[in-house]
């Protein structure tokens, strides 16, 4: 059976079959390892040495995730080829592979000359220029100098502490870089038996899937779920590195206290959960230093507020644009920035409305996409990307702190420090009238009238389902409210008779205004002639009673005799009224 090489795959291909080996596999669950599964990531390689990034969505994780394992060979077909992501790239390829519900995956023992490693090394001397860069993961190779024991690290914006292990690597020129492994990666890295078997010989480590960051001015590599390592890999670069060291005896230093000897970390107590009304009533100088939690729904975005900003990769401050360059006046760097979110919106929980703002990673979690991707998406009529505008009506539980502006104005605003829970889109946004009572002084005259109407008992008012057709009329009313439909222009109403007569005129719509006016006058003249046919339909009336009624002049006749003799003829067409004088 013939298989298609990975380099030949394009988005138009739908029926190709590939023979690949899974080089790496990891699960992405957000910041913490215990979060909800967002997708399973794979690095696939074929017999020609080409590699491609593949992704399993969470809906297909149970189907494909348990079958596909690293270092195993598979035959895949009926997959989807799409453009590669512009962020967190593990492989420099234009396309990526997505496994769907129709994808067929079968394990095979068929042999093949697959590569054992897929990597793209970044020299230690070039790491500085990638600080804060999220476009791709970085791979490094170095000699292991030091390995610390895992330790628990607590963060103010996370309820649970994280496990961290620091290791130190050195390249051929003597440059050293610190690598921080987090969560399960920190506990999985084990070097207990390295020096026992090979003696004090140098140990090389190939690390893949790292991000370049800084902390307190010090550069380091961060390794989360996408990070993998290989001890003493059999690659040409590792042999070159060992030759540069020569016959030096380098023993790995071990520091720190074993994890089993450390005290059990205590989970931080949950911050106080308050409503927006309770937060508004707190004096700014008495607001909790570590913030509080609140559950709110985003009701609207603030107009004239930019949703992104150029952030310095070193100090995270906003860069100022001067011509074609972005300059950070805090640390003096030029064009060392990355775009980040700056979302400013109004939230409500039914008790009060409050302005909130968030930056960076929190904004990405709210929108659900990286800022670079959203900047290239179509914009709506208000010049906002649809992905940003769609956050309205989303409900969250936030941990917030009070902004500096709250110390100068009576209405408080808050800065979001973390997202505790995301509830998704809500069908109904909370309004203040539902849960927040208002005083009579705050209600205007019109509102008071509305309040009186609302006090009517439910027995005397129709239900909400009955009022739906009346309160929200559409072009075509419901069948039970069809009598409220506006009459068509071809319907003619005559006001001369006591009862309204409906006369259909099929040619009325094709006549001009003058023709319709002339027609109305002629119809009025004809209406003066008694209609004999209608008399037959009238019930029999005693002659004496009819004479007596005819002898009594009506009130309208007496009033007409006192007024000037003006002859007016009126004809009503539809809803309008026209008059003509003689």
From TrEMBL:
Residues 135-218 form the Replication protein A OB domain. One of its GO terms (molecular function) is DNA binding. Keywords: DNA-binding, Metal-binding, Zinc, Zinc-finger. It comes from the Eukaryota. Residues 524-539 have a biased composition (Basic and acidic residues). Residues 524-582 are annotated as: Disordered. The keyword DNA-binding applies. InterPro entries: Euk_RPA1_DBD_C, NA-bd_OB-fold, Rep_factor-A_C, REPA_OB_2, RFA1B/D_OB_1st. Residues 3-107 form the Replication protein A 70 kDa DNA-binding subunit B/D first OB fold domain. Residues 300-409 form the Replication factor A C-terminal domain. Belongs to the replication factor A protein 1 family. This is Replication protein A OB domain-containing protein. It comes from Panicum virgatum.
